[in-house]
Design brief:
This protein is of the alpha/beta class and 426 residues long. 37% of the residues lie in helices and 17% in strands. The strands form four sheets. Strands 4-12-11-10-7-5-6 form a seven-stranded mixed sheet, with helices on both faces. A four-stranded mixed sheet has the order 1-2-3-15. Strands 13-14-16 form a three-stranded antiparallel sheet, covered by helices on one side. Helix 7 runs parallel beside helix 8. The chain is globular and about 60 Å long. The chain starts with a helix and ends with a helix. The structure holds pyridoxal-5'-phosphate.
């Protein structure tokens, strides 16, 4: 199909993320992708500074990942998971248990990050129901978060900043504390801790769990906080009989410099969600992991099962590529790659630090963010990055990059140059 017909049909029929219908802007048509480059239908190549929404950490068409999918395709692409099991899923679950904090022992394979958050919340609510405390069914979180677009995850997204404010009155009402004070090295603000403690204590009888993105709040505003707040949350939740959920969907698998963001603080949650980079960006799969205490609690209830079972649960193709992606990551010196990318981002974003309109430039691991004092003009910013040979996707007042870990220094320099161009344009 030629590009004009394709974009016309796309505009007429295809919803895009957070998009109007019919579409008002023509998306770029990608014909193929390889390494860190997207090949557009018009022949242009763009270096991908987004890792396809933070998932394609090894780049595109990686030979080991391609081989894993092909090999699995020759055996079976899918079988139902009810009453059946298979090696890719068992290996994946075992591997996830091995590499995540040790009290996490049981794995629910979900079809997307949002669904894994639904499952994590369901695990916590059902745990309290099963142990005879049905009144514990609310969640506490800090503002500025993002946990997905299905309804329960939406209820713990930032209530003002995101698009989910539309659903006030429809969503379950959760308890919000202010956004954690900014800065990975900022130290712990005692007034903030006191406020957190007061709200957890005050609501403990009705709280099932505290849910947060550890260390980096991603799509809610690309903010970093001090990992010591995770200790604070762990102590408060233990003291007040509240469970703790870490959403590592964006931060997991090395992005912040440790394998999981919780590792910065050596804190173990009761439930943890991973997704995105788990399959190296090949197929949609996520997981909710929980402790034996939660699993045992659920198993002693009137309904002694976790009542959740998506059709494509444990999909063998996704599990096979996830196994290959995790092995590839662990076989590489990923931590050195992240340190190299971090240094490149700090150096490459230096030129915009003092520009008018720039409020903050922050870098942590493989994440580089420029925050403006006004909403980004997405069309102008995108035009500038594409003209620089780079794909970025700014949102709100943020222009940022999360490049694949395999991005070489020359390509990283292209990304930061393009980001600076977008700042100047947008
Ligand atoms: N949680 C976090 C921290 C995320 O960043 C995202 C997606 O950006 C999600 C949950 C939702 O994941 P998915 O888009 O796979 O449903």
């Amino acid at each position: 199909m030629d590009v004009a017909s394709l974009t016309a049909l796309d505009r007429a029929h295809v919803w895009h993320p957070y998009g109007p219908m019919p579409g008002t802007r023509d998306p770029l048509v990608v014909e193929s992708a390889s390494g860190v480059r997207l090949r557009l239908a018009d022949g242009r190549d763009l270096v991908d500074g987004m890792s396809s929404w933070w998932a394609a950490i090894h780049g595109y068409r990686h030979p080991r990942l391609d081989a894993a999918v092909r090999d699995q395709l020759d055996r079976m692409s899918h079988v139902m998971f009810g009453g059946l099991t298979h090696e890719p899923a068992v290996r994946l679950a075992t591997k996830l248990v091995e590499i995540t904090p040790s009290p996490l022992r049981h794995v629910f394979l979900a079809d997307s990050g949002s669904v894994s958050i639904e499952v994590a919340i369901k695990m916590c609510l059902q745990y309290w129901l099963s142990v005879g405390r049905p009144e514990k069914r609310r969640l506490l979180t800090w503002r500025g978060g993002y946990h997905g677009d299905t309804f329960h995850p939406m209820s713990v997204c930032d209530p003002d900043g995101g698009m989910h404010s539309l659903w006030r009155g429809v969503l379950p009402e959760q308890v919000f504390v202010p956004t954690p004070p900014a800065g990975f090295d900022a130290g712990v603000d005692h007034d903030y801790v006191a406020l957190l403690a007061a709200l957890v204590e005050e609501n403990a009888d009705s709280l099932a769990a505290v849910i947060v993105e550890p260390v980096v709040q991603g799509a809610g505003g690309m903010r970093f906080h001090d990992p010591r707040y995770l200790h604070v949350l762990r102590e408060l939740t233990l003291t007040h009989d509240v469970l703790l959920i870490f959403d590592e969907i964006a931060t997991g698998f090395g992005r912040t410099g440790t394998l999981f963001a919780a590792d910065h603080a050596a804190v173990s949650p009761d439930v943890m969600c991973v997704g995105k980079a788990m399959t190296g960006g090949y197929l949609s799969m996520a997981a909710a992991l929980c402790t034996s205490e939660i699993a045992n609690g659920i198993s002693q209830g009137d309904l002694p099962v976790l009542a959740h079972g998506p059709t494509y649960m444990g999909n063998p193709l996704a599990a096979a590529v996830a196994n290959a992606s995790i092995d590839l990551l662990l076989d590489s010196d990923w931590a050195a790659d992240i340190r190299r990318i971090e240094a490149g981002l700090i150096a490459g974003l230096e030129p915009v630090v003092d520009l008018p309109g720039v409020v903050d430039v922050r870098v942590l691991g493989g994440i580089g963010v420029v925050q403006l004092d006004h909403p980004v003009d997405i069309a102008l910013a995108t035009k500038a990055t594409v003209a620089s040979g780079v794909w970025l996707r700014p949102f709100r007042d943020l222009i940022y990059t999360m490049p694949p870990y395999v991005t070489r220094d020359e390509d990283l320099a292209l990304i930061t140059k393009a980001l600076c161009a977008a700042v100047a344009a947008g």
